[in-house]
Amino acid sequence: MTDLASAASRGAASTIVWQLLRALIQFGSALVLARLLSPSDFGLLAMILAVTGLGEVLRDLGLSLASVQAKSLDQCEKSNLFWINVVSGAVLSGIVCVLARPMAALYGEPALVTMTLALAPIYLLNATAAQFRAQLNRDMRYTSMNLVDVIPYAIGFGIAAIVGLATGSYWALVIQQLTVALSGLVLAMLVSRWWPSWPKRHVSVRRFLRFGIGATGTQTLQYITRNADNVAIGAVWGSAMLGLYAKAFQLLILPMNQFMAPMTRVTLPVLSKVRDDRVTFLRYFNAGQMISGLVVAVGYGIVTGLAHPLIRLFLGADWLPMASIFQALAVGGLFRALTQPLSWVYLSLGRTTAFFKYSLVSQPLIILCMLTALPWGPVGVAVALSVASAANWVMNLVWCQKQTAVAMRYSLDLGIRILFVYWVPITAMTLVVVWLTHGSYWSIVLGIATSAAYLGLAYVLFSVVKCDLQGVLRALKRLRNS
To answer: Are 245 and 118 in contact (CB under 8 A)?
Structure first.
């Protein structure tokens, strides 16, 4: 158990460092390309990915998660999973090609035809890489995994910047997507220390498919929910408004993906190994959700309040209409971060079917909320998404406890504390700073300083804040010493 904890700590330490680097690369890419391209260019890409991006969920069929979660997995099983992924990726690439013209007709954008055809190979490339990445995750080779995650984004950024400077067109975004997928596949193959054999018909992978079907069903519903707003806004309000909305969502979700997704990657194999020891399971689970929730709440609080000066500074005045959309999405982003750790419980305990059944009810309700708000434009959709995300978090807590017998009282208390002790005060204070300074660039420095001062004062005055922050510091200390 000590070795497992040490491996998890080392993995988390490596992941945090590398994901910070990846976040900087992606953030830098977003800023540079936003200066070189127009909101409409980003809107065109968002139109495509909102429809065809479902292939990124289906091409894996949940088999990479299944192989990571499994207690045992031999060479023949891994190879069969690999070939299933390859076939599914090839089929999906073909489907995307077929959808090119209907999708262009749906949005009334002829340029989408060639863009979609160019992006189609991505699904085959990523499907081929899936089991190589899963092997790294299963072996808990976190540094290698992080290399495979980060380096392709650096390469993609460099090439996209060159194309953007040369053409000033959406092709910079298309080539960036292709470059990340291709270089990610090549790097994963080089570092995985594994190579598939030919498929064996007599080797059954049914247990993996059963797990994968539940996971894929849930991910598919979540994907449709995440992109229904993009499709609706693009069809009703056009590429420019969708570009603003999509960029706001991207910048909101970027830090959470850079933190929560790697946390899942580190936590899932650990929780899967201790799932029969509920005391140890709860200790790891509660620690993980406390750290992730606290970090996201503080970060979101600061950037929500400082949205206007930050966008003016980094993206330029043309993107300022995005600020109100970003702020409206922020509450939903916080509740998404609080909900994400619940997936660790479902996946590590193999309860993907229960997760899927919950999603069959919750995700259509979220979509309905967003579509109801469509007449009020992107801001209205963003508000509706945030309200629905808050309700989804509460309902998911109840369902998860009922289906897994894992106590969720700590999760509920933690979420309420994170919202009202951290996010609300920090957001309110930074908004006041922006108002007092008339949105000048000095408000960024003053807002961050005010937030730090509040956390310091709360640490001294409130025992619960002291306990939370000491828990994070202890975790960081273990990471440093591991």
So the answer is: no
